[in-house]
Specification:
By secondary structure, the protein is an all-alpha fold. The chain folds into 2 domains: 13-52 and 64-233, Up-down Bundle (Growth Hormone, Chain: A); 255-458, Growth Hormone, Chain: A, CATH 1.20.1250. The protein is 75% helix and 1% strand. The chain has 16 helices and 2 strands. Strands 1-2 form a two-stranded antiparallel ribbon. Strand 1 (64-66) and strand 2 (69-71) form a beta hairpin. Helix 1 (14-50) packs antiparallel against helix 6 and helix 2 (76-101) packs parallel to helix 4 (131-159). The radius of gyration is 22 Å and the shape is globular.
């Protein structure tokens, strides 16, 4: 942290150190539950409900009925995620407006976090054929997580000025990978050694789901206690007399109108929505792809994801060094094309080819950390100065509320082809469209238009 007047480096504040811990807390749910365990587990629960007499290794061709709509058990997870993210698109912008106006944002943030952690913990009770409870809890946990992160991001603007946010945000992001990786390692050991400790695979999975919820709830106490003294509100462009609902709608309209004045910012955001949609779908589908299509046991898939978790930490560092040499825009663009390669390699990976699966994991880890970290930095350069909280609130809402098309397409392709290979290769379209749009972003023009200084290397 640098003092503008003296150029001296100042120590991190207590608030910033407290803030880091929420990345550590929620990443346990993101990695253990949302990314690795719940997708194949809910699929197995759905298959047990639809095909109770299914022979081991056979495909379930019977559909479930969801509000009268036939749904293949293998598509249930992806439709559930799609529903959650579409619903988020309608809710998160209001959450951001409430956070802007809240005199006690930490209480609001903690309330969402603990609601999500409760839903995550209750996943322990999903067993047998009770897929309805599993799907409902996934929706609640996902909504609560997205809402808590909107408030979490707005708090960043209160504890760090514009010169500190990149460093503070990046450190929290890296801290999250370590926390999520640590719990995933513990759950990997439990699932792998479940027989030696007298547990069934199902019970070991359920305990792991419970541990993610308890971890999320427990470590949220640290940022809550460290930030609970924060008071006051961030200045908003809409007068408070409009109220929460009216003010939220007015603020959203103002933000969208502002975006039209910054065409390069809007173009970058559109590009990000496409390639991020592809990234999130690959992450969310990887565990079920590894188990159902490539035939690896759950323990192997857990180990692979553990590898991804820690490689991603170093991948972010590598991408940071590359960005310093060739610019963040070129580095992210290269990362998008690497994601395209990952999807193509995944399509051609033979069943039970562990060596290729490990190569895929390393590639995913490298590009996962780098593209996500640098995308946030690039976007921050294209935001008009003094409007960071407002624009990042929209960024968070759009990131989590519109990343639904990939999971929908994945689920539809699987339902019509009964093949996860064809479902995953379709995601090439998202990376190609995102990459083409990103290649058309004129960063220097966008940075100058936003009123920000142009970095030495763009």
């Amino acid at each position: 942290m640098t003092d503008v007047a003296t150029g001296a480096t100042r120590a991190e504040t207590k608030e910033q150190r407290s803030w880091y811990w929420y990345d550590w807390a929620n990443s346990a749910y993101v990695t253990t539950t949302a990314t690795v365990l719940m997708s194949p587990y809910l699929t197995s629960i759905a298959e047990a409900a639809a095909c109770p007499d299914l022979a081991e290794g056979a495909d379930c061709t019977t559909t479930l009925s969801v509000l009268g709509i036939p749904v293949a058990p293998g598509s249930l997870w992806f439709y559930t995620v799609t529903f959650t993210t579409v619903l988020s698109a309608l809710v998160l912008v209001f959450v951001g407006a409430v956070a802007d106006r809240s005199p006690r944002p930490t209480r609001l943030f903690a309330a969402f976090a603990w609601a999500g952690a409760l839903a995550a913990s209750l996943m322990f009770f999903v067993e047998g054929t009770n897929w309805q409870l599993g799907a409902l809890l996934v929706v609640i946990a996902g909504m609560a997580l997205g809402s808590s992160l909107v408030v979490y991001d707005s708090i960043l603007c209160r504890i760090a000025d514009e010169n500190e946010r990149d460093r503070v945000s990046s450190k929290g992001w890296a801290f999250g990978f370590l926390g999520g990786g640590l719990l995933l390692a513990l759950n990997f050991a439990l699932v792998t050694l479940h027989e030696s400790v007298g547990l069934t695979l199902s019970m070991a999975t359920r305990i792991s789901l419970l541990s993610a919820g308890l971890w999320w709830a427990g470590f949220t106490v640290i940022p809550y206690l460290g930030l609970r003294h924060l008071t006051g509100t961030v200045a908003t462009p809409v007068e408070r007399s409009r109220g929460v609902v009216g003010g939220s709608l007015a603020q959203l309209g103002d933000t969208l109108r502002e975006l039209r004045l910054y065409p390069q910012t809007l173009l970058f955001l559109l590009a990000y929505l496409f390639f991020n949609d592809g990234i999130q779908t690959v992450i969310g589908s990887s565990s079920v792809y590894g188990q159902e299509e490539l035939g690896f046991p759950q323990g192997t898939v857990l180990g692979i994801f553990l590898l991804v978790q820690f490689v991603a930490f170093f991948g972010a560092r590598l991408f940071g060094r590359l960005a310093a040499r060739v610019g963040a825009w070129r580095t992210v663009l290269g990362g998008v094309w690497l994601w395209t390669l990952v999807v193509v390699v995944a399509f051609f990976t033979p069943s039970r080819s562990l060596a290729l699966f490990v190569v895929l994991a390393v590639l995913i880890g490298i590009v996962l950390g780098g593209t996500q970290a640098l995308s946030r930095s690039l976007y921050s350069q294209l935001i008009p100065r003094g409007r960071e909280a407002e624009f990042f609130s929209l960024y968070q809402a759009m990131e989590r509320g519109t990343s639904w098309l990939g999971t929908l397409v994945f689920g539809l392709v699987y339902q019509f082809t009964s093949s996860y290979r064809w479902a995953i290769v379709v995601l090439v379209v998202f990376f190609v469209v995102g990459g083409v749009l990103l290649s058309r972003v004129r960063m220097r023009e966008g940075i100058v238009a936003a009123g920000n200084p142009v970095p030495r290397v763009v």
